[in-house]
Description:
heterodimer; A: alpha/beta; five-stranded parallel beta sheet; three-stranded antiparallel beta sheet; 9 helices; 29% helix; globular; B: alpha+beta; four-stranded antiparallel beta sheet; 17 helices; 14 strands; 40% helix; binds iron/sulfur cluster
Amino acid sequence: MLDNFKILIHQGKQFIPDITTAEVPGIFRGRPVISNEKVDDDKLVDLCPTNSIAKNPVSIDLGKCTFCGECAFAFPDKIKFTKDYKLSTNFRDGLIVKEGEEKNIILNPDLIRKEISKYFSGSLKLRQVSAGGDNSCELELNACSNVNFDMGRFGIEFVASPRHADGIVITGPISENMAEPLQICYDATPEPKIIILAGTDAISGGVFADSPALNRIFLTQYKIDLYIPGNPIHPLTFINGVLELIRKRK
Amino acid sequence: MNYIDIKNNQCIPLASIPVLEYEIFLEHNTSLLKESQNHCVNYYGFHSDGKIKLICCIANDNDGSIYVSSSHINMNETLLSFTHHHFAFEKFEREMHENFGIKYLNHTWLKPVRFSFDRTNKENTISNYPFYKIDSEELHEVGVGPIHAGVIEPGHFRFICNGEQILHLEIQLGFQHRGIENLFLENKKLLQRVTLAENISGDTVAGHTTAFVNLWESLCNFSADKDLQFTRTLALELERIAIHTGDLSALCTDIAYQLGSVVFGRLRTPVINYFQIWCGNRLAKGLIRPGRNNFPFSKKLNDKLYKLFDEFERDFIEMCEESFSLSTVLARFERTGAVTHQQASSIGTVGMSAKMSAIVRDIRSTHPHDFYSSLNHQPVIKNHGDVYSRVQIREEEIKQSIGYIKKLLKNIPEENKERKNLSSPSLNSFAISLVEGWRGEICHCAVTDEKGELVHYKIKDPSFHNWLALALAVRNNEISDFPVVNKSFNLSYCGHDL
Ligand code: SF4
């Protein structure tokens, strides 16, 4: 028993006091900033492994970007990744960052369904469905609940059954073999319910986008309430995104 | 000669692999496995000239050899199975049956492996999988999944139980199948391929990416500079420390030992954050690239790592001493989920699943690459094959890896600023790469055509062998012990399903 106390004292307080202003240690590939510098656009577009870069104007679609950082290495004056981890939004076009525009990625309050702020602002229980994910977003979602990030303090938790959940969090590009289980899980979640896409694979298929082994029909049928980019998503990105969704009011 | 004897990361002309009559091919490979130092690292087929070319790779753990042989069979030939002679081939043959419709005469049960999108028999679907059944009024079945109750990947587990006691467990996988091997051929850019390698299994980014880049460099006749080798070795050992530590936390969670769960969980954070500091991604995505390195290791990074270990080691050792002296913890770990030496050898397990049952199988010592020859690695071996053996392996491997890293840091290679560009891959060639990831042996194989284009890419995650070890481990255990046994293996779904 005494040993246990000793360990507790050694551990000290581990939680991040303010999750909304915490700084990511070291380097991070968060929200990119694209300058107006002239570069060889075709070369830039061609370099990207996931076709996230478009030209006229040069833009990066964070829903496709796998955050490899190679564009910034090849064209350091054109593209820089900032440490801004607040990357979530509730409309697909909100994920597109254009050259010369430096603005934060935000949620559009008009698009947040009324039920969300009405029922979920103080507590949100989520069922996670890994649908062809590579387990990296799953690792980070688990990390959200550890002693550092301590997402539970905001009433946001992952639960074991869709029956207990207010919504689902999808990771992975949705493999054909997971299409039906995903649908069953969604149907089993009581109304009102939300859908969160966590990670680039879920949002666009990511590096798997062209694979014939996927079946993404599910996503065309329902409104997506939150897009959270990253490969994998950073716990700070996830928690802040969900908090924005449930706390923001018109 | 029935085979060609090659080393890890060697590239050879495809034509130099002896093509054997199937009977001789079978006799040769199955008799190799009669000797305990040999095990099958990969056995697969691919379409070639209207036929199917089978390639079998057997590694010798004593002298670092890999014996490669091949056979060219007709599409609708019925074959005698390797499995009849050695059970370690069971899954490989099921996979070939699923992919190409190859019929085997005396295989135990040719069930689908992963319901790949291009399987021959589309009637076999993931929802009509033929589970093993026992007809009995006393026994009952418990099915869980595919969606896991936690934040974990999907798989379906079907137990046959006598009350609380598990008699049989069947594990159905394939839910995570993304067609990744096919994408290696479809996506022609090297950056796309290395990004794919990073996404094979997100908890083994360093492991799979190192296997890919080593393979690619050997195809391109490029010998990696010391600083590249240093990066890969360091990343592999850091990944091992991080995931093992996280697993110790999860194991404590599953036996409701809160303090261990929280402290080990917390200790993982600085290690994965170190990857963040080094390369901007907590799981090391972006760090390892073929023929180059975007994140040279600096003096500052070196100092940070020493500091990290000073703090980590103190807390880690304290927590291990406390946890593993508690009778309540040991009572749940010891003798739970045991696999015997005989079982483990018969199914060809690798990694922790082998080392827990006194099988000395570790690529770092038997087929070293990058800096491993200089580290002179001695695998951590246990005898009981139970949860506690797997826990102890993790604890000791973490300490061992810290020691290796400190040794590596004594002599950090200078960055080569005048790196040669990678040339294109050799024509009509075969290459193989083996890496000891934290979970065990990873194997990547590639075949190129007359233009140097990839015509086949084969990935084998350690989980491919080891899922069966989990199924055997839980026999005669209480069903309530399943979570802790499962976690003690911590196998990959996506790495298996590909
Ligand atoms: S960081 Fe994103 S946009 Fe840039 S090359 Fe990589 S995937 Fe493309």
